[in-house]
Model the fold of this input.
Amino acid sequence: MPELQLDGLVGPTHNYAGLSLGNLAATSNAGAVSAPRTAALQGLAKMRLVRALGVPQGLLLPHDRPNLGLLRAMGFAGPDRELLRAAHGEDPALVAAAWSASAMWTANAATVSPAADTADRRTHLTVANLATMAHRAQEWPGTLAQLRLAFADTRHFAVHAPVPASFGDEGAANHMRLASSAGARGVELFVHGVNPGGRFPARQHVRASAAVARRHGVADALLVPQADAAIEAGAFHNDVVAVANGPVLFAHEQAFADRTALVEALTRQVPGFCLVEAPAGEVSLDDAVSSYLFNAALLSVEGGMALILPGEAKASPRVWRWLQRVVQDPANPIATLHVLDLRESMRNGGGPACLRLRVQLSAEALAAVDPRFLLDEARLDALERLVERWWPETIAPDDLGNPDLMDQCRAARRALLACLGIAPAELGEA
Ligand code: SUG
Done:
């Protein structure tokens, strides 16, 4: 059962605006100068590595940014260039939201339930409403359009619009799946938060999680509360402190509100369940959040499982020491560590796991995915050339009021669509 990885190509407008309260990396880098070209090349290098490991790799596209539709809806008017300048003069934070390249973190694009788990034996995808953060709440229409195009074959796929925005839903970043073997029915974990009176918001509402499980017809769904302490430590999504693959749960000891109940349930329900857990005494929650060691892509590869980690995990001696023990321990299938430089995305709180949406598919369903969203070496080469030619080298906060930069970013995205053979009208764009 191949697992397609759909990475978000980092868009030309990637910048550091500090928009996400509770995301410590993003807020501490607010106002820094970003490097969109480097960011996109780092993301493409990750896609190339995953393909080289024998895992099918595809991409989702950056959205059309800056989103002048958002600014017009907020009452700004006039021709595009003047509108941008005026809006930036009056409300630079709103304009920063309109520029956000946050669609790159496709773990937040949707929640995916593979066919083996669902009542009608189709793969179900519900687009996330991302309602908690203004800059992310604008993503879902663009994501829905892309997923409806990529997964148009209704014999295999059902793509659902988001659940109502009254209940925040952050997609696969708060969803994990454990299964005894490829093809077996899985247990799906829908992790949500509460964090009453805390400094940081819990972004995933339990009702959104329950609604997605219901819509998908998931037979074995568990609603699992996140530990408030994890949210307070900066785990704004559960995938900052846990990731699962096959029968393996790779997590921090303090990720969940009731760890014992969860471990008991998984031991009962998943044959061969394997817990790989970092004890708080060895790796603190703060270590986990600053190193993003659990925001790894945990992949099934030949000979076992591989972890794709950000360089920050290797840079932390405590974390790296613990990881060495994990790969040497024959009790778990994690056999190799791959370390990547994803610094540009990491500085906005997006690690290897944030950058990809996993879609488990039968070989037949994989063949039904629109091939324009799939990658081979030639296409990766072409995308690298395209990014080198069109993506801005840097963006500083004041650049967000510059209409020339807007024109450059729009031209870059048009060139990308042309390179992939996707007409704007297919995405509902003019
Ligand atoms: O939603 N950062 C993203 C990072 C998302 C990471 N995704 C997962 N954990 N799956 C977020 O907080 C920062 C953008 C800014 O501040 O400009 C941002 O949106």
